[in-house]
């Protein structure tokens, strides 16, 4: 399975990718727990069918100690016992914030209230930005058909400034 | 988090007997079908993910890993279309699984293209087993989700 277009081989594409990576770094360095960040990115990537991103974030999560059970249950988190209430609130926000197309009702007040209960303003700023970022990245990769399977943890570290 | 209702609560109850028949039907395919065991697990996992069945997602991801499936392939089942780690035959089975699972509210069912693609990779016995497997997992997904039987503490090898 070949990618349709190598964004990184194009100077403008590479420049944009570098900026996106550095926006992501600001989120990574936020007070939102790293494990929660990985769950959020994985769930959005599953919903958007982004193989490259699912590969990326499951391997990165594993590299920092996330268990296989939790990673495998992200797709069915609602019916699982292995996530905290705070993580469940973040996952609910991720799903509703990802499924906004074609007059889906967006994020409910109930979900937002639950997020408010578990996260402070800095964490919420990070969470909302993270959901937006991963949805953008999912689209970049799905449109050019970047396949998942061959990511190695830490591969993009050299994009950092 | 305990389930709302234990379907197996009373071994003599009709529900427990019926559930036993479901189990036996699944086991017949799992044990006797010429459909590759790895493919069967991918199918069971994908339907369970779509239906949000935590219990079955736990069961089939652990059973797959236990049988030697790699973490990369298990993790990529949710995004198989955009992944390089599945064979064309597995992709055909996964596509049939998705369309056979998402049939609610006149969604369109299984397209001729998907069916022809599956028929190109599997013989009639295997196709029949695949259809039965997709039907059975969709039924058992509903059993778990309705009674809220949650996933997380399954021990590999216990089922299937």
UniProtKB/TrEMBL annotation, chain A:
The UniProt GO MF terms for this protein read: peroxiredoxin activity
Q: Which SUPFAM superfamilies match?
A: AhpD-like
A Pfam family of this chain: CMD
Q: Where is the Carboxymuconolactone decarboxylase-like domain?
A: 17-96
Q: Which residues cross the membrane?
A: none
Identify the domain of life.
Bacteria
Q: Any idea what this protein is called?
A: Alkyl hydroperoxide reductase AhpD
TrEMBL record, chain B:
Molecular functions (GO terms):
peroxiredoxin activity
Where does the Carboxymuconolactone decarboxylase-like domain lie? 27-98
| Segments passing through the bilayer | none
This chain's protein is named Alkyl hydroperoxide reductase AhpD
Organism this protein belongs to: Actinoallomurus iriomotensis
């Amino acid at each position: 399975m070949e990618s349709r277009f190598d964004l990184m081989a194009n100077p403008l594409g590479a420049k944009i990718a570098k900026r996106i990576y550095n926006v992501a770094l600001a989120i990574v360095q936020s007070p939102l727990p790293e494990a929660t960040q990985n769950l959020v990115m994985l769930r959005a990537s599953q919903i958007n069918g982004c193989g490259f991103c699912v590969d990326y974030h499951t391997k990165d999560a594993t590299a920092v100690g996330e268990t296989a059970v939790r990673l495998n249950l992200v797709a069915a988190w609602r019916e699982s016992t292995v996530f905290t209430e705070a993580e469940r609130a973040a996952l609910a926000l991720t799903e509703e914030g990802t499924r906004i197309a074609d007059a889906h009702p967006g994020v409910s007040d109930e979900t937002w209230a639950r997020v408010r209960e578990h996260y402070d303003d800095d964490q919420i700023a990070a969470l909302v930005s993270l959901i937006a970022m991963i949805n953008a990245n999912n689209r970049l990769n799905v449109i050019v058909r970047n396949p998942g399977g061959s990511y190695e943890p830490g591969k993009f570290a050299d994009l950092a400034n | 988090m305990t389930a709302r209702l234990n379907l197996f609560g009373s071994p003599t109850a009709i529900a427990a007997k019926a559930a036993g028949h479901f189990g036996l039907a699944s086991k017949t395919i799992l044990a006797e079908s010429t459909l590759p065991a790895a493919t069967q697990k991918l199918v069971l996992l994908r339907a369970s993910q779509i239906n949000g069945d935590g219990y079955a997602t736990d069961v089939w991801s652990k059973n797959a890993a236990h049988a030697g499936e790699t973490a990369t392939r298990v993790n990529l089942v949710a995004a198989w279309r955009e992944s390089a780690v599945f064979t064309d035959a597995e992709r055909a089975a996964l596509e049939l699984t998705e369309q056979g699972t998402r049939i609610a509210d006149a969604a369109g069912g299984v397209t001729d293209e998907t069916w022809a693609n599956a028929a190109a990779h599997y013989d009639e016995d295997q196709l029949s087993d695949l259809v039965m497997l997709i039907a059975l997992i969709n039924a058992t997904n509903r059993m778990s989700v309705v009674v809220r039987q949650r996933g997380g503490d399954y021990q590999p090898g216990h089922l299937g």
